[in-house]
Amino acid sequence: MQSSLSTQIIALAGLSQAICLLQSLARHNKLDPEQYQTTLASIANLTPESPLAVYGDDLSKISSGLQTIITQLGDSTNRDVEFTRYLVGVLALERKLNKNRANMAELGKQLSQLERQLQHFAVTDDTIVGRLADIYSECISSLGSRIQVYGQPDVLKQTSVQQKVRALLLAAVRAAVLWRQAGGSRLNFIFQRRKLVAAAKHLQAQTTS
Predict the structure, then answer these.
(1) What is the distance between the alpha carbons of residues 63 and 61, in angstroms, rounded to a whole number?
(2) Contact 166, 133 (CB under 8 A)
(3) How many CB atoms are closer than 10 A to CB 116?
(4) Cβ atoms of residues 73 and 189 within 8 Å
(5) Which residues are within 8 A (CB) of 95 and not within 5 positions of it... i.e. 6 or more apart?
(6) DSSP alpha helices (H): ranges in the chain?
(7) What per-residue confidence (pLDDT) applies to 2?
(8) CA pair distance 73, 77, nearest whole angstrom
């Protein structure tokens, strides 16, 4: 995939949306159904026709992610430090995954097998969510540098919530893969921050036009 600012923004919006869903789940045990479906569906979309096709070929489905980019990278004083920790953690995990050929191969194998299950179950079905959680544990958690999830202890101790957390983290890593493939790196946040915000605003405007 060629480096592309628009693809970087799509990937970053997908990543941001996955993190925001994770935070909402951990803090309040709530998930936006449409955003949740879009985010989980992105994991199994292994051969998209375009970067946006990863997220249903519809910018409005990642609009909250675009707004998060604008808030977090722009001049707003309402930046969420916890969000930044998650973002840095996911990008670090993806770099480790990219360097581990065995785990990458196993991840690809398991996601290909998942496609067959999706012929019988919705991606948000508990059976699929549990499988996604297992894939995350087997292929990514095993790399080390586990991400600490913050929220309500009574919520986080629930098995169903733990599975959803891992599934959302897998979706975040999937977006981080797309971000890297499009030329994204840590340096972009330092030297191209304003360009990223401007591009996010441009795409966001298309969702309301």
Answers:
(1) 6
(2) yes
(3) 8
(4) yes
(5) 180
(6) 5-28, 33-44, 63-73, 81-99, 101-117, 126-139, 153-156, 159-181, 186-191, 193-208
(7) 54
(8) 10
Determine contact, residues 124/157, Cβ cutoff 8 Å.
no
Question: And the tokens for 45?
Answer: 């979309």
Report how far residue 30's alpha carbon sits from residue 21's, in angstroms, rounded to the nearest whole number: 8
What is the average pLDDT score of the chain? 93
- The Cα–Cα gap between 42 and 173 comes to 11
Distance CA 94, CA 176 (A): 6
In the predicted model, is pLDDT for residue 1 greater than 60? no
Separation between Cα atoms, residue 80 and residue 82, nearest integer Å: 5
Tens digit of each residue's pLDDT (9 = 90 or more) over 104-143: 999 999 998 898 889 899 999 999 999 999 999 999 988 8
The CA distance from 169 to 136, in Å, is: 8
Label residue 52 by pLDDT band (50, 70, 90). Answer: very high
| CA dist., res. 80 & res. 93, Å (int) | 20
Give this prediction's pTM.
0.95
End-to-end CA distance of the chain: 28
The two tokens of residue 187 are 């340096």
Tell me, rounded to whole angstroms, the distance of Cα 142 from its chain centroid: 19
| Spatial CA neighbour of 178 closest among 41, 17, 10, 61 | 10
Place of tokens 């975040």: 172
Has residue 197 got a pLDDT over 70? Answer: yes
**How do residues 137-173 score in pLDDT, each as one tens digit?**
999 988 877 899 999 999 999 999 999 999 999 999 9
